[in-house]
Amino acid sequence: MYDSRCPVPKEQQPTNEFIELSKSTIFSSPKTKQSLNLLLIKVWFGAFVLFLVISSGSIYFKTSILKYLLLSLFSSLSVPILLSIRLYLGWNHVFKRLTSEKVEYEESGWYDGQVWIKPLVLKEKESLIASIEVKPILKNLIQTLSIISVLALSGIFLFQYNNF
After folding, report:
1. 5-40 tens-digit pLDDT
2. Does the residue 116 lie in any domain?
3. Which residues of the chain register pLDDT less than 50?
4. Structure confidence at residue 151 (pLDDT)
5. Which of 4, 76, 105, 157 could staple 47 via S-S, CB 3.0–4.6 A?
6. CB of 40 within 8 A of CB of 46?
7. CB of 68 within 8 A of CB of 55?
8. How does DSSP assign 77-141, residue by residue?
9. Residue 2 counted as domain residue
């Protein structure tokens, strides 16, 4: 992507990091809101089944089937929350690298960090990629994470202030 004078290794170039993240199965799901929601619903359902199995061993919950189901339902939201946070952190890292004026890179290991200043043409190109491709993904992730967090908090309040 860069000219031959670029000292940054190919795998550490922000445009290539964006392309690799876009090709990833999990990280490509937030590109559309539908695919993100479908992935998180599948993960939530899988976690719900797992949490049902885990909480089924409790004698306390055997007396109240409603409490057993609701607790498993709300506690299983922790898995989609963690997945959403991981997706957000990955895309946010790429966004910051695309929009920064400098590229920090490693030539051979953790001890030889270097900084390369992007040329204006490359900076504009990567800024365009960040605003058109990555910013909507971050917006979708923030909205989805907010909705999941509200659901999880409502479950916490339900169990905190309700004796059923």
Report:
1. 778 888 889 999 999 999 999 999 999 889 999 999
2. no
3. 1
4. 94
5. 76
6. no
7. yes
8. THHHHHHHHHHHHHHHHHHHHHH-SEEEEESSSTT-EEEEEPPHHHHHHHHHHIIIIIHHHHHHH
9. no
Domain that holds residue 148: 10-90+135-159
Supply the DSSP string of 42-64, one letter for each residue: HHHHHHHHHHHHHHTT-HHHHS-
Task: Report the predicted TM-score, pTM, of the whole model to 2 decimal places.
Answer: 0.88
Tokens of 90: 């990955």
Q: Give a yes or no: residue 98 inside a domain.
A: no
Instruction: Confirm whether 110 is domain-assigned.
Output: no
Report how far residue 21's alpha carbon sits from residue 15's, in angstroms, rounded to the nearest whole number.
10
How many other C-beta atoms are found inside a 10 Å radius of the C-beta of residue 72?
20
Q: Phi and psi (nearest 5°) for 63?
A: -80, -25
Residues 44-55 have pLDDT tens digits of 999 999 999 888
Instruction: Name the strand (E) or helix (H) holding 11.
Output: none
Name the domain count of the chain.
1
